[in-house]
Amino acid sequence: MNLTFIGTGYVGLVSGVCFSEIGNQVTCVDSNQDKIKQLNRGHVPIYEPGLKELIQKNQSQGRLKFTSRLSEAVQEADIIFICVGTPPLASGEADLTYIKQAAQDIALEMNGYKIIVTKSTVPVGTNDLISSIMQQLSQHPFDVVSTPEFLREGTAVQDTLHPDRVIIGTEDERVAAKMAELHRPLSSNIMITDIRSAEMIKYASNAFLATKISFINEIANICEKVGADVTEVAAGMGQDRRIGSSFLQAGIGYGGSCFPKDTDALIQIAGNVDYEFKLLKSVVEVNKDQRFNVIAKLKHCLGDLKDKQIGIWGLAFKPNTDDVRETPAMEIMEELLQEGAIVKAYDPIAADNFRKSFRHEDLVIWSPDAKAAAAECDALCLLTDWAEFQDQDLKELQQLMKQPILIDGRNVYSREQVSQTDFQYYSIGRPDIG
Ligand code: NAD
Hints:
Belongs to the UDP-glucose/GDP-mannose dehydrogenase family. The chain has helices at 10-21, 33-40, 51-60, 70-76, 97-109, 126-137, 156-161, 173-183, 195-226, 230-238, 259-272, 278-290, 293-302, 328-338, 351-357, 370-374, 387-390, 394-400, 415-419, and strands at 2-6, 25-29, 64-67, 79-82, 114-118, 142-146, 166-169, 190-193, 309-313, 342-346, 365-366, 379-382, 405-408, 424-426. The protein is of the alpha/beta class. The protein folds into three domains: 2-193, Rossmann fold (3-Layer(aba) Sandwich), CATH 3.40.50; 201-288, N-(1-d-carboxylethyl)-l-norvaline Dehydrogenase, domain 2; 291-426, NAD(P)-binding Rossmann-like Domain (Rossmann fold, 3-Layer(aba) Sandwich), CATH 3.40.50. The strands form three sheets. A six-stranded parallel beta sheet has the order 3-2-1-4-5-6, sandwiched between helices. A six-stranded parallel beta sheet has the order 11-10-9-12-13-14. Helix 5 packs parallel to helix 6 (126-137), helix 9 (195-226) crosses helix 11 and helix 9 crosses helix 12. 47% of the residues are buried. Bound molecules: nicotinamide-adenine-dinucleotide. Nicotinamide-adenine-dinucleotide binds next to helix 1 and helix 5.
């Protein structure tokens, strides 16, 4: 099929590339001309394992192209995917500016019947809004479908090629059949539902995952006080099939471009219909506090942080991505600087992105590698569980530091590993060592 993806960010680019990989003719459009220029020069603007190779392969085989010229892209397409951002407004509500613009842009360029698929995460009722915007601007027939995206950054290519499920929200049988045909090479688990339920499935899924994370983080905080080990607790809980073991890793909380914004948006969606989502409000609050456990642990072992040298390992909100949106590292480093600490930081991939969005960029010592970030430090804080950190030689590391203090915000190291060193080791929800 001829497909066009509007917005070539994490969702639009990965989806477009994967649909070309399964044999479709794909055009990816972005209003950011610089992004398109980069892509056409072979430079991939985001870090996502496996993506660059797939782009090269499908571009060279003539199934994938990048353009900022919307009219051609719309006119050649049978199906148009809207994959633009829906960032949070100050109120927490999703900002639909880019969605409305994309709907207008498509409507003005249409030359015949099109299926419009909303992949962006949008509040319930937004697909109806897209329909009404388009109806006002175009004489051509169209159908709007909600197909929310569930890919995870860091494993986005694999998630897109092998999704757990595909949700298709439409009330039209022929459109449902066409969308099912398009997705069948990726998954046999396709659920057809109505548009509003499809929109809600996305928010409810993210809210539930965020709830699991905040739940285990609160259990971890209690474990610390009663002398239990949260990894043991989570392992025991996870064996119950009703609970499951995923999303029960205690740590410094979730970040990224989806969970924080989608939980806030769902609270607002509920609020707009006079429903107070008390549980989700607590999930958000717990998550906001959880990251500061790192600071509390540092103060517990170092006292006043003024002039203490603190190493930071990991700036991305999770491993295998260069996305630093809402990353816990941002607030932790701001707080450390405010306390007068000297901060050294390193991330294998996300440092450049982090530096662009960190307002105290000039106050941080940016280290070229993990060892340099730890050298001469009074304490080291691991904030992102990149594999590179798990593989470090802790004995060698302790020699480099002024004081061997390790705050493991992601519970990366085992007791056995740390016990063989002189590290004072503090993790989340597990007994301290040293
Ligand atoms: P992003 O910010 O990385 O990319 C959005 C892109 O859209 C940008 O490149 C921007 O230039 C472009 N754009 C904006 N308006 C445009 C227009 N009118 N025409 C052409 N291009 C336009 O965003 P993202 O992370 O890919 O997320 C997109 C949507 O998907 C959001 O609603 C998000 O919540 C949802 N989502 C994201 C993820 C994720 O992991 N990032 C996962 C699932 C769902």
